[in-house]
Design the sequence.
């Protein structure tokens, strides 16, 4: 009975947004408020690189160039992260899925566990502003992919050619919302809470 209740009260959200749009910053607030487990594939990769694991070594060259890490690697990593937090109140996915194959795999994987994505929210900010923000972040983040305009543009290209297809994917499931990503951090947090509160 406990497990039944647990499964059907889960809240699973995906945050979308181009590099630099503030997903990571906002995820911190959302996970606290709604008591979700935050899964950021970018953070997981960076952790693996720091610890020089096999997975980290594999991901490093893709990340440094601003290319997506192959689905074969990313999907496995994501699944094992979900498995190890399976009794969470819900998940906040940040940076995953980024391709249609990743989204399809995620749906199948959740479905087998009687779970589903409830809501996806994209934070919308224009690329000119994002480039400024990312270069600024690069001064302190130490991230190689934040320090070079060509790599940043490549990340946008990856988003526009692969990740943006997910807008239709989730619109077809009636789960796609978009919020304005301009303004100060608090205002954007409020817009996100507002979308989530309308859902729950
Ligand atoms: P940002 O969105 O600011 O570019 P992330 O931390 O989300 O930063 O991702 C950094 C890098 O990690 C990406 O450019 C990509 O190389 C890799 N990565 C993260 N998530 C995925 C994913 N779902 N699929 C493939 N590669 C990913």
Sequence:
């Amino acid at each position: 009975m406990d497990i039944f209740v647990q499964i059907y009260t889960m809240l699973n959200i995906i945050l979308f947004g181009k590099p630099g749009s503030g997903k990571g910053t906002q995820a911190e607030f959302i996970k606290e408020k709604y008591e979700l487990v935050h899964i950021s594939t970018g953070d997981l990769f960076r952790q693996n690189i720091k610890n020089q694991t096999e997975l980290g070594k594999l991901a490093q060259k893709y990340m440094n160039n601003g290319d997506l890490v192959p689905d074969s690697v990313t999907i496995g990593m994501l699944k094992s992260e979900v498995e190890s937090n399976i009794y969470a109140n819900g998940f906040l996915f940040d940076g995953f899925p980024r391709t249609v194959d990743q989204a399809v795999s995620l749906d199948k994987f959740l479905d087998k566990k009687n779970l589903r994505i409830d809501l996806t929210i994209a934070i919308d900010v224009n690329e000119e502003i994002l480039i400024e923000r990312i270069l600024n972040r690069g001064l302190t983040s130490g991230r190689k992919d934040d320090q070079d305009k060509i790599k940043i543009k490549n990340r946008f290209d990856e988003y526009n050619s692969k990740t943006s297809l997910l807008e239709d994917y989730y619109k077809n499931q009636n789960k796609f919302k978009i919020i304005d990503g301009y303004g100060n951090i608090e205002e954007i947090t409020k817009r996100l809470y507002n979308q989530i509160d309308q859902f729950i």
About this structure: The pocket of adenosine-5'-diphosphate is lined by residues 19-20, 41-42, 45, 62-63, 66-69, 74, 95-96, 98, 102, 145, 155 (CB under 6 Å). The mean pLDDT is 95. The CA atoms of residues 66 and 154 lie 6 Å apart. The chain has one domain: 11-199.
